[in-house]
Write a structure and sequence with these properties.
It is a single chain. This protein is of the alpha+beta class. It has 2 domains: 2-142, Alpha-Beta Plaits, CATH 3.30.70; 168-376, no CATH class. Helices cover 45% and strands 15% of the residues. It is built from 16 helices and 11 strands. The strands form 4 sheets. A 5-stranded mixed β-sheet has the order 1-5-2-4-3. It has a two-stranded antiparallel sheet with strand order 6-7. It has a two-stranded antiparallel sheet with strand order 8-9. A hairpin with a 5-residue loop joins β6 and β7 (223-229). α3 crosses α4 (107-125) and α7 (170-190) packs antiparallel against α11 (291-297). It is elongated and about 80 Å long. The relative contact order is 0.11.
């Protein structure tokens, strides 16, 4: 039996006399929907859940999968409760059990106990060939995100609903990518003279590189190098910005006064790190132009949520992460045309999620058409 990802675990589970087989095993679509709902419940309750998957390999229903499944269900009965859910993660291939609202005490030892129970039960009921076909994996939600590594920190196994959605939108996503490639290529060609003028202005007024490169977090938590025209002096300290961002995410930040906006903005103003040219570039959003290169490379889209810096993601509540999971980051989006820094962080996240769920090519076109007006009138810009 092959055991994968069993380093995570769960707290004590009360055994019941009712097995998953007695309660019934839900179909793939319903099980994926339950996983999605449980993620949202965990985001509110902060009580994690564990998804255990048993992959039966190459066996098809006609060659014994149903019989093997019944034996697996019987083996699981000693470690499941009535509140736990068993279902097909992948029809006729992978069966899953979702243990809800678990504790985290002694979790590794509990998983080891479950593995031992399964191994003993399966060895008694399955042939050696069948036993070797079964692999067991454990997946804990919420997962820990480590942005120091280049690989995806979010566990795709915990998001089967999003994977299925993307699969169903393959043609639409291809159209969006085509729009991104054509749009960014045209923008780079159109703004080439402006690129040169901005570069000259930056080099003439302050020391340092023309471009500002920063590590940002993209879709699914994958980091990439984000490009902007440099608007700050080199060698500055980001601690003030980090502190303000953490307060903003926690809902404790105060609005700062901004010229032309009596309501104030949720953003640092009168920042001494910003150069005179940089202040103009930020006010007009011209500092964003190099991001068309990120779009051309496929790291960003023309329209989508803004990509955060790692220390911003570290301060996220669990539900905030959805803005990174459900859409590729973009240069502009609903947030930019709906008040920008005038809205709270939670309102920004809700706008990002609204965009991800209601996305269509026409929606992107409408946002792109409204963006120049938001830039000209400086709605929430600073």
């Amino acid at each position: 039996m092959n055991l994968r990802r069993h380093s995570v675990g769960i707290g004590p589970l009360a055994a019941t006399a009712q097995s998953p087989a007695d309660r019934g095993i839900v179909n793939e679509e319903a099980f994926h929907r339950m996983i999605s709902l449980e993620r949202r419940r965990t985001e509110r309750s902060r009580k994690p859940f564990l998804l255990m998957l048993l992959d039966m390999g190459d066996y098809a229903p006609s060659t014994g999968t149903v019989r093997i499944l019944n034996k697996l269900a019987a083996a699981l009965s000693v470690s499941t409760r009535e509140t736990d859910v068993a279902g097909w993660y992948k029809t006729d291939c992978i069966v899953g059990v979702m243990f809800t609202e678990i504790g985290i005490e002694d979790r590794n030892s509990i998983v080891s106990t479950m593995i031992a129970r399964l191994s003993t039960a399966l060895r008694a009921d399955l042939s050696l060939e069948q036993f070797n076909q079964v692999s067991v994996s454990f997946h804990l939600f919420p997962e820990e995100w480590n942005h120091d590594e280049p690989r995806r920190p979010s566990n795709p196994t915990l998001y089967p609903d999003l994977s299925k959605r993307d699969e169903g939108m393959r043609s639409s996503n291809a159209l969006k990518r085509a729009m991104d490639v054509v749009g960014s290529a045209l923008a780079l060609a159109l703004f080439a003279p402006l690129f040169l003028g901005i570069a000259v202005a930056i080099k003439a007024t302050s020391r340092g590189p023309v471009f500002f490169r920063q590590r940002r977090i993209g879709q699914h938590g994958i980091p990439f190098v984000f490009l902007k025209f440099r608007s700050m002096y080199t060698g500055n300290d980001a601690s003030n910005h980090k502190e303000y961002v953490q307060k903003l995410i926690a809902g404790k930040a105060e609005r700062n006064q901004s010229s032309g906006n009596s309501e104030g903005v949720f953003k640092l103003t009168k920042d001494p790190r910003i150069t005179r040219v940089g202040a103009f570039l930020r006010r007009t959003s011209l500092d964003e132009l190099p991001q068309f290169l990120n779009v051309l490379k496929g790291e960003m889209s023309m329209v989508g949520p803004r990509p955060p810096v790692p220390y911003e993601v570290e301060a996220y509540d669990f539900w905030h992460r959805r803005r990174l999971l459900e859409a590729k980051p973009g240069i502009t989006g609903l947030w930019q045309i709906s008040g920008r820094s005038r809205v709270t962080f939670d309102e920004m996240v809700r706008l990002d999620l609204r965009y991800a769920r209601a996305w269509s090519p026409w929606m992107d076109v409408k946002i792109l058409l409204r963006t120049p007006g938001a830039v000209v009138f400086g709605e929430g810009a600073h």
